[in-house]
Amino acid sequence: MLKEAKNNQILYTSIFIIITVKGLLPSSHLFWKISEYMDSFFSVIAIALILSKVFYQKFRCKELLVWIIIGLCCAITSLLMKDYYLFITFLLLFSIKDVDIEKTLKIHMIVVAVFLTIHVICFCFMWFYNKSAIPYTYRDGVLRYGFYMVHPNKFSMYLAWTSLEWLYLYIKKAQSYQLIILIIINLFCYQFTDSRSALIIIFIAVTVLWFVKRYEAKWLRKIIPFFAKFGFGIGTFVYAVMSFSYTHVGGLILSFYRIFDKLISTRLTLSTYVANVYGLSMIGRQVTSYGEKIYWNDRWFDVIYLDSVYTALLFGYGVIYSVLFIVLFYYTAKRVSFKNQIFMVLYLIYGFMENYGLNAASCFVPLLIGMVIYKNNKGKIDKVNIGE
Question: Of 6, 189, 216, 285, which alpha carbon lies 20 to 30 A from 150's?
Answer without folding.
Answer: 285
